[in-house]
Amino acid sequence: MTAADVAAARDRALRGGDPARWPGKLPVRERLAILFDPGSFVEDGLLAAADSGLPADGVVTGVGRVEGRPVAVIAHDFTVKAGSWGGLTCEKQIRILERADRDLLPVVYLVDSAGGRLTDQMGFFPGRRGASAIFNLQVRLSGRVPQLCCLHGPSAAGGAYMPAFCDWVGMVTGNASMYLASPRVAEKVTGERTTLEEMGGAMMHATVSGCGDEVFDSDWEAVAAARLLLSYLPDDFRSPPRLHEPAPPERPEWDGLVPADPNVGYDVRDVIDGIVDGGTFFEIKARWAQEMVVGLARLDGRVIGIVANQPSVRSGAIFVDSADKAARFISLCDAFNIPLVFLQDVPGFMVGVEVERQGIIRHGAKMIAAMASAEVPKYSVVLRKAYAAGYYAMCAPGFEPRATIAIPTATIGPMAAEASVNAVYANKIAAIADEEERAAFVAARTAEQQADINLLRMGSDLVVDTVVEPDALRAELAARMVDADRWTRTPGRRHHLVSPV
């Protein structure tokens, strides 16, 4: 073996396979060039499987820099055995995850893999250094460092759990898929006939299953989004996110933004645009469980997490999926020291036979448990209605927010005044034969109920800490964030993962 032989093997590994069969995909090293600062990537294991003609054994691993910060990467090469995992593929992934665990490095996964390489099943499947060790390390890293996944192609069989253990999954439409069994296998097992897109495609996972966070049209957009998302997250669980230069909000005018009528819908994203620094709202799972809006943003240069009811979708009621969506996001923010702002306009949890059978109580409990156990500074803003257990789940005063802030359209109570009257006086109302008399009775009782839960009463009884005009809300929150700068965790509190819920 000569130096020339080694150099030739290195060149073959760097070239990889022939990407011409997949004209809609960027080669793996072009994806890495988008992710990392120019010239910063240091690769490991380039010569893996060099003697068997599998360039880098189908996976590129190493450490590069994103805006100067060291970040570990696992990037599958779809041109080498469809990015499938053999024994050395697993070993390379395990080694870089062990380094990320030791050095507390964020990890980006550029996933494009057909799954385990069945011709090397004893290498990837059963042993201590096989695929199970990869998943074990991902769980060990969860909540300790950010883990982001760009899904460029398939993530098949057991390998589908690699994206599932990540904090964010961006999927490329038309190419990305996640599934435990292919349509062919599913048909053999269950008799179902389906397509890959229907069973595990990007849009399905972003809108139905919730396993995908966002859908992108191209490889470069997904990688660029992961790079941007890293700017909102700290290097690890010990650090806060970096401060940025403040910017004015996109929407400085609030006139008519929140209708006084609780039955009129509006887009809570417009409210968010009036609070946060312009152009900084990074929404997460925007296409799934749309009655709840969650995402990261900056407020006067500080990173915050936002959990908001969406009145324009199903009145902002909390369903099974939206409870899970909120619980996972709250857990993410708490893990990485990101203060939480809850924007309340909620009629409560959804009721009815269907949601009870789906376990709305259990899923609601997950959301409430995540919110209650989060130690990061929490702020509750009541925009309009805050009713029933939905008020509790959105960080009611009993869950110790730093402040409960209301704007003048806010109403807090067990239910709407009209509903309360109907519940309390149902028999009395039914007994009044005269229509005008009945209407007058209902109106009088409704006024009594409204007086009992009016905003002045809430301030007088210290239910809310302050009432501010909408255009003063941003400044109020920013000032309170500054006051919480010296926040620290309870000593000895154990680290927690970001649960897939």
TrEMBL record:
It comes from Pseudonocardia adelaidensis. InterPro entries: AcCoA_carboxyl_beta, ClpP/crotonase-like_dom_sf, COA_CT_C, COA_CT_N, MCCB/AccD1-like. Residues 1-245 form the CoA carboxyltransferase N-terminal domain. It holds the Pfam family Carboxyl_trans. This is Acyl-CoA carboxylase subunit beta. Gene3D superfamilies: 2-enoyl-CoA Hydratase, Chain A, domain 1. It comes from the Bacteria. PANTHER family: ACETYL, PROPIONYL, PYRUVATE, AND GLUTACONYL CARBOXYLASE-RELATED, METHYLCROTONOYL-COA CARBOXYLASE BETA CHAIN, MITOCHONDRIAL. Residues 248-483 form the CoA carboxyltransferase C-terminal domain.
